[in-house]
Amino acid sequence: MQTHLAWHGRCARHRSILRLLMRTTSFSPPESPGIAREGTAVAVNFSRAPSRVQMAVLRDGERVSQIMKYVSTRTPGKEFEFSEVLMGAYAPDGGLFVPHKVPRFKKEDLLKLEWLPFNELARHVIEPFMGNYIPQDELSRMLEETFERFKSKAVAPLYQTASNEWVLELFHGPAGVYQDFGLQLMSRLVEYTLTKSGKRALVIGCTGGDTGAAAIKAFNGMDGVTVIVLHPSKGTTEEHRRRLLSTAEGNIVNISVEGDYSDCHRLCEKILRGRNETGQQLISFNSINWVRVLAHLAFYFYSALQLGAPKREIAFSVPTGNFGALYSGYMAREMGLPIRQLIVATNANAGLHKFLQSNFYSRTEICSTKTPSMNVSLASNFERLQWSILNRCGDKVARNMELLEGDGQIQLERDEWLEARKLFDSLAVEDAETFRSIHEVFVQNGYLISPNTAIGLRAARVSRRSLLIPMICLATTHPATAASVLAEADVPCPIKGASAQPLSNDLCISIPNDVGILMEVIKDISKDTMSRSR
């Protein structure tokens, strides 16, 4: 099975050896009993970075940090503070928040980050986007606490599956999904803000299973916060349902909505864009919240630097539904990370893939797949992508989104669409191919991957442009989150899945697909939590 090789590089000799090895086309660890040449995870985690790194100051990033503001994708005239972006969802005009400037790291800046432990690297990458919101030492403490909860000391170790092909394990957080990166940090930032203001918040979002599980792990038992998790009655597997209902404390409310994920998303959207009648702050835990996108930057920088950036280019394949993790990759490239290729890997609900292939983006009926957390018709972060490729023209973005919300379809101008084609490659992967990918990797490497990861790996192998450039596939979910699917893929699955978890008696409300009923339920929840807090 999986073999981890941890280099602790505390002397110059070890660091030199590692640097040389990581820049070879195919990583081959030195001969050692019990360590195979292939299928080796590289967990670089330096408990103490060199003093020259500790003293490094990213001056360009710090200047941007002092003046960082945010604007809406639809009417970019008004500016917002980071705290407003964190403690909300949509901009007042219904758009999404984006930074008015993107801090850019020079090559020498990136080299200074090369040997930092994950939490310190994350601080350098994230801090420029926060303005004067939080003292540096407080942010460092939060990040250290965030990643202490991850089971791997490296936080996001790399595992080699083939020559110049790597899996980035993003599933070592509390919920076993990549969303842990954003939501663990977000929960601490929300708690920090509420402690200063003395207010309460309702954190609301929709999920196919993974994001909701991560939100519950992040906010579970937190004072001043009630989390409302909407999941669809159709398409939510029993494993995902158990993950949502088995660990929740009193501040978590699960609501089952009649319909599919798109129905849940539309209800959430109407609640968060409408008038707030709850008496509490309404915060989204989905990736429309910029902090989710921001936190993911860290694992792009960390993995790319381990495999030779900024001295060599890197490619990424990203299994996606709402385009959140992919937009983080796009932002990392805009910030100076030498990313040669970004691959959009979708399941059969291939809205993003179809757009990139045909310049036709539309709302379609969701079909059932073995990767329900990726069953998305319209990606939430597509609006942010439009903002980028439409030269930050808020009027165009607003017009397109109005058409999409009304007619359910849009087309971009040809030159705009070609710009998107330059930025991304894509592939839609059917369930049968997903099964083959899981089986193939296990036979070749003795390594289990989840269905989501299998989609990313399949897309990487079909769509990569160069075999000479390291390809990193994001492993967004732990195999145990889909143990029943692995059994169908004809691979042994010694890990216990969510089906082994007992269901608790915590509240789960079932409602029809009706925004009025949902609003009444939310107001009742708000009144109840407000009365109990007095």
Automatic annotation (TrEMBL):
<keyword id="KW-0456">Lyase</keyword>
<feature type="domain" description="Threonine synthase N-terminal">
    <location>
        <begin position="69"/>
        <end position="147"/>
    </location>
</feature>
<dbReference type="InterPro" id="IPR051166">
    <property type="entry name" value="Threonine_Synthase"/>
</dbReference>
<dbReference type="InterPro" id="IPR029144">
    <property type="entry name" value="Thr_synth_N"/>
</dbReference>
<dbReference type="InterPro" id="IPR036052">
    <property type="entry name" value="TrpB-like_PALP_sf"/>
</dbReference>
<dbReference type="InterPro" id="IPR037158">
    <property type="entry name" value="Thr_synth_N_sf"/>
</dbReference>
<dbReference type="Pfam" id="PF14821">
    <property type="entry name" value="Thr_synth_N"/>
</dbReference>
<dbReference type="InterPro" id="IPR004450">
    <property type="entry name" value="Thr_synthase-like"/>
</dbReference>
<comment type="similarity">
    <text>Belongs to the threonine synthase family.</text>
</comment>
<dbReference type="GO" id="GO:0009088">
    <property type="term" value="P:threonine biosynthetic process"/>
</dbReference>
<dbReference type="GO" id="GO:0004795">
    <property type="term" value="F:threonine synthase activity"/>
</dbReference>
<feature type="domain" description="Tryptophan synthase beta chain-like PALP">
    <location>
        <begin position="167"/>
        <end position="397"/>
    </location>
</feature>
<dbReference type="InterPro" id="IPR001926">
    <property type="entry name" value="TrpB-like_PALP"/>
</dbReference>
<keyword id="KW-0663">Pyridoxal phosphate</keyword>
<dbReference type="Pfam" id="PF00291">
    <property type="entry name" value="PALP"/>
</dbReference>
<protein>
    <recommendedName>
        <fullName>Threonine synthase</fullName>
        <ecNumber>4.2.3.1</ecNumber>
    </recommendedName>
</protein>
